[in-house]
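User: Some background: our group keeps a shared notebook of sequences we're curious about, and every so often someone picks one and asks for a predicted structure to add to the entry. Today it's my turn. The entry only has the sequence so far, pasted here. Could you supply the structure so I can complete it?
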Amino acid sequence: MTFEELHQKTLDRIESVYKRVDEHYGMSFPRPQISFRLKGRRAGVAYYRENLIKLNSQLLVENGDKFILDTPGHEAAHLVARRVFGGFIKSHGDEWKSVMRIIGQEPTRCHEFEVKTNHVYSCACNPSNYVSTYYHNKSLKGTVILKCKKCKTRLSWNKHTVIVTGK
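Assistant: Of course. Here's the predicted structure to add to the notebook entry:
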């Protein structure tokens, strides 16, 4: 599938989410502006004041339909929940969870997409842990010790591993 097709499917998914909440709440919610320029480990982010959703185009391309089913609805639910319940609710609190159920999604907080970076570390359970540039630099400076979330062992940098992406 081309990026343009993925882009359109994502926009269609967001529109379907808004049609559901429009019907459920009996009102017309303003449609957000959508940006596909988010980088890094986050799949998406919602900005309530700007009525803006930013999505990670790299993760969209790498994960296709799985990304489209999970991320746009998740971010739209943040905007809808804040509009319905007020701006001071918890980001992944009960109000957001209720909106997620209305749109037909499980209210999961974090994505599980693999985010490949140029900084590969290994641990006892996995030879390929990808670390963000921010944490890689902190590790090199000695200001943070990186540990695996699964096996709890210290991550060691595979300094000779180079990731080549097809761009």
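Suggested note for the entry: The longest strand covers residues 44-47. Helices lie at 3-25, 57-85, 94-102, 133-141.
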